[in-house]
Every structure is written in structure tokens, then in C-alpha cells.
Design a protein that fits this description.
Number of strands: 9
Distance between the termini: 105 Å
Structural class: alpha+beta
Order of helices and strands: EEEEHHHHHHHHHEEEEEHHHHHH
Radius of gyration: 30 Å
CATH class of the largest domain: Mainly Alpha
CATH superfamily of the largest domain: Intergrase catalytic core
Strand content: 5-15%
CATH topology of the largest domain: hpI Integrase, Chain A
Largest sheet: 4 strands, antiparallel
Number of domains: 3
């Protein structure tokens, strides 16, 4: 009959298992009971070295919790899901979908100590092989990393394996979206059949509001005397549900409205509480508006653009008018200037020629 033989050390203990391998045990800092290490060793010397490292980690406060390391990743999902309850409905739904569809089937039941960079690489390679887009893989990888961040903070593992990998994914290139001139904005607006839609096109282009912010506007949000709009709500159409809530950044802002737009908006005022309602005086659904109004106006006018391009158009027109990047950031409601520069301030057609004309004047003055 095989027996286990044990030997005591000055700290911890090592015992030989019936299999012939050696098990290292270390004292629990809270109870003093000997806890087995996560792996066994081929010889006593290797087990002794592991115990020495374990003691150093415990003394330095860098040791991992061996018990927690054996728990599956799904044990940390509930805490992460609670932490994202404040996010917009669509964003939150997307993260939950990535967990259930792509992360949980592979890593949900796996002890977190077994999740390493190689396994993450294999998971990514599997998604690439079946044609999952780079943007979706990056979104799923982001969720996995944030869940594993919680595992690291609980000291169940020493570092995040989602960042300890060899496969590097590049963000897909952003399409070069058009920037409209004021004449093109007017041509697009003229392609709309309803006064509401013509006003909405001009309002988006000259105030820079997000489409969800514009569709959530109430008449009480507009100060016709000051010619301003208070932006505090946004409507989101996600999975067939209309949800009215705070803006994307959870901040409110006041935006000035050009004179011509103010007068056009004033002419729309009716019984409805909303500025841009549907025929039932309720919130207009973005997808319905795209299908019934915007897309048809694009065909009529020949102006190929998306509603969101009007936000970039506003940013570029403001820069042309002399605004600083900081001014545009506050006007559009961005959290930082980098977002404004990277995504929204673009050069509209003919801008280079305008600048050269101004340069010619400066050169002529110096001659």
C-alpha cells in the first residue's frame, strides 16, 4: 500500500505523494492551517524552491489566493455585470451579449488560474477562423479583460492574461466620413418632405447634437429668448425598446442655436411636448426616420451622408468659424479634446483652397 511521506521545514511542509511527486504546503496567513500548493513537483528540491517563493510573496503582500484561483471565471461575472448597470442600455446589452455568446462558453467554467495568454490567443484565433470581425473580437476581448481585472484585484491571479498574449489585433480603420458644406446641408434638407424633417436636418448640422439627444428634446428645453437649447436627455432605440435617459456622457450642456434655426424650430411648435415627435406625438424612432425620411432625401438630393455626419459637419464648421478645439469639445459634449480631434474635426472639401487664398493675401501684404 502506497503511503504519503511528509517532512517538516522551518516554514511550510513538503510531502511525497503515492504517485512519487512532491506536494508543497504553506501556512494560511489567517488560520495557520497548511494549504496545498496549486501544482505538484517532480522532486523535493523544486517543491522547496516554490515554498521559498511563496513565503517571499506572502511577506511582500504579492501572493495570490490559491483557493480563489481554483474558482471559475463565472464567479466574477456577477460583480462585473453589477458594475455596468449605469451604462447606456445598448452598451450594457452589448457587453452582456459578448459574455454569453463568446466568453462564457470558453472561459466561464474554467478555473481562473488555468486562463493564460496562450488560451486567450487560441480563443482569439478561433473567432478569426469562423469570420468574427475584428471590431467584435476587440469588444469581446475588452469585456474579458475587465472581468479578469476584477480577478487580479482579488489576488486570485498575479496578472491579467488578456494582456499577456501574442496575438495583436488592430482597430479596424475608420471610414473617411463626409463633411458637408452649408450648401449641401441645405440641399439635403430640401430633399425632405416634411417641415419637421427639414428642420431636424438643419438643427443637427448647426447645433451638433447627437440624433438621440435631438429626438429627446422637449419644448421646455429650448429658450427662445436666449436662443439656446438645454441638452439633458437622450432617447435610445435598442432591440425594439425606446429608452429615454441621460446623455451619453451623463452630463448636461447648453448649446446656442443659430438665428435661422431658432425661427424654423419655433414655427413647428404644436400641442406635443416634444420638438421632433412622430405622428402620434410620441418619440420618433431613429430607424423609422432613417427609412422613411433620411434615406429617401439622400436619393433625392444626391448627398451621400449619414445623420451622424451632421455632427462632424458642425464640428468642422465651428473650427472654420474660429472656434478652438476646447470650444468644440464643450459644444458637442465630449469628455475630452482628443475625441473631438480624432473623430469629429475633419477638413471639408475646398478648405485647403480657402486657406491658400488667405495665405496669398498674407504673402501679398509682405511684398
Amino acid at each position: 500500500m502506497n503511503k504519503m511521506t511528509a517532512s517538516r521545514r522551518g516554514w511550510g511542509a513538503i510531502r511525497k505523494l503515492p504517485s512519487g511527486r512532491f506536494q508543497a504546503r504553506y501556512p494560511d496567513p489567517d488560520t495557520g492551517r497548511l494549504l496545498p500548493g496549486p501544482i505538484t513537483f517532480a522532486d523535493r528540491k523544486s517543491a522547496d524552491r516554490w515554498l521559498s517563493r511563496k513565503r517571499t510573496e506572502l511577506d511582500d503582500g504579492t501572493a495570490t489566493d490559491e483557493k480563489a484561483a481554483m474558482r471559475p471565471l463565472s464567479n466574477w461575472w456577477g460583480g462585473y455585470e453589477n458594475s455596468i448597470q449605469h451604462l447606456k442600455f445598448g452598451t450594457k446589452a452589448g457587453y452582456i451579449r459578448e459574455w454569453r455568446l463568446r466568453i462564457e462558453p470558453t472561459f466561464g467554467a474554467m478555473p481562473v488560474r488555468r486562463i493564460n495568454g496562450n488560451r486567450v490567443d487560441d480563443w482569439i484565433s478561433g473567432m478569426v477562423a469562423v469570420g468574427v470581425s475584428a471590431s467584435k473580437i476587440l469588444e469581446a476581448l475588452g469585456v474579458l479583460k475587465r472581468v479578469l481585472d476584477r480577478v487580479v484585484r482579488d489576488r486570485a491571479i498575479p496578472r491579467n492574461p488578456a494582456t499577456d498574449r501574442s496575438i495583436r489585433l488592430k482597430e479596424p480603420p475608420r471610414p473617411d466620413r463626409p463633411v458637408l458644406t452649408p450648401a449641401e446641408v441645405e440641399k439635403l434638407a430640401a430633399g425632405m418632405r416634411l417641415p419637421r424633417d427639414r428642420a431636424l436636418v438643419r438643427f443637427l448640422a448647426y447645433t451638433g447634437l447627437r440624433i438621440g439627444e435631438a429626438l429627446a428634446l422637449r419644448w421646455s428645453d429650448i429658450d427662445f429668448t436666449a436662443k439656446t437649447v438645454n441638452v439633458c436627455l437622450s432617447v435610445e432605440d435598442t432591440m425594439g425598446k425606446l429608452i429615454v435617459g441621460p446623455t451619453k456622457t451623463y452630463a448636461t450642456r447648453t448649446v446656442d442655436i443659430p438665428d435661422a434655426v431658432v425661427e424654423e424650430i419655433r414655427s413647428l411648435r404644436k400641442v406635443s411636448l416634444l420638438v421632433f415627435p412622430n405622428r402620434l406625438a410620441r418619440h420618433l424612432r431613429y430607424r423609422n426616420w432613417r427609412r422613411d425620411s433620411w434615406d429617401k432625401a439622400v436619393v433625392r438630393s444626391g448627398i451621400t451622408a449619414l445623420p451622424h455626419d451632421l455632427r462632424g459637419t458642425c464640428a468642422s464648421l465651428l473650427i472654420d468659424a474660429g472656434a478652438s478645439v476646447k470650444d468644440v469639445q464643450e459644444h458637442l459634449g465630449h469628455e475630452d479634446e482628443l475625441t473631438t480631434l480624432r473623430l469629429y474635426v475633419r477638413v471639408r472639401p475646398g478648405r485647403s483652397a480657402d486657406l491658400v487664398k488667405r495665405l496669398n493675401k498674407l504673402v501679398a501684404e509682405a511684398a
